[in-house]
Specification:
This protein has 28 helices and 33 strands. By secondary structure, it is α/β, with parallel strands linked by helices. The chain has a 7-stranded parallel beta sheet, sandwiched between helices. Strand 1 and strand 2 form a beta hairpin. Helix 1 runs antiparallel to helix 17 and helix 13 packs parallel to helix 14.
Length: 923
């Protein structure tokens, strides 16, 4: 029945399929894997004659009353016999053609199986935004609904019924407080009706149904009075019936928002035809043609209009006379090169040290799949090895994929790569950037450039592991130890390092894992020369393209895979590693120093200006203070939506605000205690803003740049701030963990860690490993140039083993002690973990559901079931969270229940359920 003769997966249209008949139909039928949140994923569609569809194409198809995305799987010679032909609907359009080659198909199947995720969710994650677009049901207020009195709309109730104030008197009323006035300003209602509506509002009582009133209030608090149906269901339990009642009373309306599909961008281009100008031209027309000729005879229309200071009418006249041609052309939206990259110019290949040469030779000799740990101290020249390893691959027509843990690292690395690889085979730079901070249009166009098949170098964060490079020659994970390579949510909760191993195996290319502080899992693998164990948790067997005798998602532990260990024990030019001074802050306090800076750090900061050098100050928190407390009654101001305190921030507008770092709730800083009205409020804890403030007080001559998620929100901010610092526009770079990784700033001679204790004392078995890695990495930013560097680490626990190891730059001693503890307790890399997360707006429902799931889990030897227990922070964004931790040995995978059934059980209880395989974040 199938044109390729391969067996069929389960398929449905309106109901499960039955055996097909043998009658040949002139129409074309195709299986489509649709983005359907429930039920079977495969459905049959008719292919219209005007559409050219092939298996692997990304499609837009009708589903119920919606348009949703899907992937073409295979053609059928005829439809199921039990489905009426009139019920089979046509494919709407082809969004992208021919995307899934065989190796990529196997990769997404492995990810779906290993991480217990529906295949369509994996596919959606691999694609840029808009390709699997879907229409969505939305709920918005009517004018009558906006007028219903709720807590949000009480502002206008203070006016008497005989309102006679002019309309302009309402212009200062916030939109979120009076929706009738908002509707007026949007010209939804006319001037003459506004007063009547305001009076009507006071005559309408609140909705008696508590749930419906809550939904109305949410809509009135939103600027446009508009939310998706899914969002309202997540925020308000039993929202469906309440919305239906509001709709019946005419207070809300429902509509279907069409999918926002990604499209190429087109602009008009103007091309000069010939260089001989006749006398029928006006002086202004001649001037425009001269500008066009001097610019090479071709310009974008907007650019020509701006340069010539002319109008489109003149251009149309020139086109009618045959002097120019105006036509639409596609504009590729990709991240452009930076000023810093331009300043670097063409970078020459550097002479390697003996250790670098040995490592490069070993990589060059690799033939096919192999996993290489490149273990080099900070400043040992790992990036130069990456650059030189890629050169012969580009000459062979192959591409390279380079992953970094933070978006903040991509600008500097991209500039270095573009300076080295300035032109590709087509005369343009072969270096592309792909990460979530790009605009949807940039991601869409970059994604299409990758599919072109030309030799390219793609630099990106964890999501770039799915970049569709058709001829991949090498995969590089820089700073492979970093936890940013692991996705916590949404599903699939993949680790880019694990997926990179699978992809390198499927593409038959080497995988290079580079780090100065390798993760313990990578270290043990490199030591033993063995792969990850063969185990799986998934019962979700839907496959994109079934392959006979398909490999297990994980290579078998008993069959060794090529593992290599390459060491770079010295810095470039034999520069010494920076000495690390550990300062005991307990002694500082005993000796009368109450500053957040130790005396040693203060002295070092003073010397920076004197010696015309630069430094980095690291603290693990952003903002000003961790929390605000009343000194009279002890009240701590907390987030109303989360079980955490609000952090104190000050903004550039000199506003004092309190902000939640979990749900981003923000409120103004109160002048007095909300509990007892005392004016004595005190700030506790320190963040980047507090450090910046103290520096301004104690060292007013030092120029500072703050580098954290608050100052890098805008596009291009990472690059701009680093460029300013590299150009000497500041003496100090103050920031969080984003500045501890990969930054190569030769002029930095001092690194100060304001408080190491914030990294050590977490309720997480990985806390010591993370602290050691972070402190070692940030200390390694110093002394990379001609001047020697130093690091000063302030702590209240100088005797901690991780601190001792950082002081001595002794990775091996730390690993030896840490692995002994992990092995004794059965934690990774000597054990495996799976974290089951539950969340709901109903605290009782989520607790009961977690208890039910725990009772379903079978008791068996080798499986430890820890929980259910509340998450370390029970409530986040008004959702209560519980979790169950499964712990077992990798050699003896346990028998576990059908995750699909558990997912359905949770869905029936309005509880969100997530499976986090190999979790790194336990909160």
């Amino acid at each position: 029945m199938y044109m390729n003769g391969v067996g069929l997966l389960p398929m449905t249209v309106a109901e499960p399929s039955k055996p097909y008949n043998t009658e040949i139909n002139k129409d074309r039928w195709i299986d489509v894997l649709v983005d359907n949140p429930s039920g079977s994923e495969l459905y049959v569609y008719r292919v219209p004659e005007q559409l050219a569809v092939k298996p692997g194409d990304i499609l837009s198809v009708p589903f119920g009353s919606q348009l949703i995305g899907g992937v073409a799987i295979r053609f059928l010679t005829q439809p199921p016999a039990d489905i009426p032909l009139e019920k089979i609907r046509d494919v709407e359009e082809v969004v992208s053609a021919g995307f899934f080659p065989l190796a990529y198909t196997e990769l997404v199947n492995r990810v779906a199986s290993y991480y217990c995720t529906r295949l369509i969710e994996v596919i959606r994650m691999t694609l840029p935004p808009g390709l699997l677009g879907r229409s969505q049901r939305r709920i918005r207020l009517t004018v009558a609904g906006a007028a219903v009195s709720t807590k949000t709309n009480t502002v206008v109730e203070k006016y008497p019924r005989n309102i006679s104030l002019p309309i302009l008197s309402f212009t200062n009323v916030p939109k979120s407080h009076s929706f009738p006035i908002h509707f007026y300003f949007q010209k939804v209602i006319a001037n003459k009706y506004l007063l009547t509506l305001l009076i009507f509002q006071q005559s309408v009582s609140k909705i008696s149904n508590k749930t419906a009133n809550q939904i109305l209030q949410l809509l009135q608090e939103q600027v446009d009075g508009d939310y998706s149906f899914v969002y309202l269901q997540r925020q308000v339990p039993s929202a469906y019936k309440a919305i239906k009642e509001l709709w019946r009373r005419g207070l809300v309306e429902s509509y279907l928002e069409p999918p926002q599909l990604a499209r190429p961008k087109y602009e008009k281009a103007v091309t000069l035809v010939g260089n001989v100008f006749d006398r029928d031209l006006t002086p202004r027309q001649r001037e425009v043609l001269e500008v066009l000729r001097r610019r090479g005879g071709e310009l974008w229309q907007n650019e020509l209009l701006r340069i010539s200071n002319t109008s489109s009418t003149i251009l149309k006249n020139l086109e009618q006379k045959g002097y120019i041609v105006i036509q639409e052309r596609e504009v590729l939206r990709t991240e452009s090169s930076s000023p810093l990259g331009g300043m670097l110019g063409k970078e020459q290949t550097k002479i390697l040290t003996p250790d670098q040469s040995k490592a490069l030779d070993a990589i060059a000799r690799l033939d096919g799949y192999a996993k290489v740990l490149l273990h080099g101290v900070t400043g040992s020249g790992k990036t130069e090895i990456y650059l030189q390893a890629i050169v012969p691959l580009l000459a062979q027509g192959k591409s390279a994929l380079v992953l970094v843990p933070e978006i903040g690292l991509t600008p500097q690395l991209t500039d270095r790569f573009r300076a080295r690889f300035s032109t590709g085979v087509n005369g343009t730079s072969p270096v592309l950037v792909y990460h979530s901070a790009l605009s949807p249009g940039e991601r869409f166009d970059t994604w299409r450039l990758m599919l072109a098949g030309e030799p390219q170098i793609v630099i990106g964060t964890r999501s770039a592991i799915f970049a569709p490079l058709p001829n991949l020659g090498i995969i590089i994970l820089d700073e492979e130890h970093d936890s940013s390579f692991k996705q916590d949510s949404p599903a699939p909760t993949y680790h880019a390092r694990t997926v990179a191993e699978w992809r390198a195996e499927l593409e038959n290319c080497p995988l290079i894992l580079g780090s100065a502080t390798p993760s313990l899992e990578t270290w043990v693998d490199a030591s033993q020369g063995l792969a990850t164990g063969d185990w799986r948790l998934s019962s979700r067997q839907t496959s994109l393209s079934p392959i006979p005798n398909r490999q297990s998602p994980i290579p078998n532990r008993q069959s060794p895979i090529p593992n290599h260990y390459l060491s770079l024990p010295q810095r470039i030019n034999a520069r010494p590693l920076p000495p690390v001074e550990i300062v005991d802050m307990r002694r500082e306090l005993q000796e009368g120093n109450r500053s957040i800076f130790s005396r040693s750090l203060q002295k070092a900061l003073l010397q920076l200006k004197e010696r015309n050098q630069q430094g980095i100050l690291f603290i693990h928190r952003r903002g000003h203070s961790t929390f605000v407390s009343c000194r009279s009654c002890g009240f701590v101001i907390e987030c109303p939506h989360c079980d955490v305190s609000l952090a104190y921030h000050y903004t550039e507008e000199a506003m004092q605000v309190l902000r939640c770092h979990y749900c981003n709730y923000t409120r103004s800083h109160p002048r007095s205690c909300p509990e007892c009205s005392s004016p004595y409020l005190k700030f506790f804890g320190s963040g980047t803003q507090k450090v910046e403030e103290e520096l301004a007080k104690q060292f007013p001559d030092l120029r500072c740049i703050r580098f954290d998620s608050d100052t890098t929100r805008n596009k291009g901010a990472h690059r701009n701030l680093i460029t300013q610092f590299a150009n000497g526009e500041a003496d100090l770079l103050v920031g969080t963990q984003m500045l501890t990784k990969g930054l190569d700033l030769p002029q930095v001679t001092l690194v100060g860690v304001v408080s190491a204790d914030g990294l050590l004392h977490f309720s997480d078995y990985r806390a010591s490993e993370r602290a050691f890695q972070t402190l070692t990495q940030v200390a390694g930013r110093a002394g990379r140039g001609e001047e020697p560097g130093r690091a000063i680490v302030q702590t209240y626990t100088p005797e901690h083993p991780a601190i001792e190891a950082v002081k001595n730059h002794n990775y091996h001693a730390f690993v030896h002690e840490e692995l002994e503890q992990r092995q004794a307790l059965g934690y990774p890399p000597y054990g495996r973990l799976v974290l089951l997360r539950f969340s709901s707006t109903d605290p009782i429902q989520v607790e009961n559901t977690a208890q039910v799931v725990a009772s379903i889990l079978p008791e068996q030897e080798g499986l430890d079931i820890l929980g259910p227990v509340p998450a370390s922070i029970l409530r986040v964004a008004n959702r209560y969270r519980w979790q169950i931790l499964l712990k077992f040995a990798p050699e003896t995978p346990p028998y576990l229940p059908d995750w699909e059934e558990i997912d359905k059980l949770c869905h029936q209880k309005s509880v969100s359920f997530t499976i986090d395989v190999d979790p790194l974040n336990m909160s």
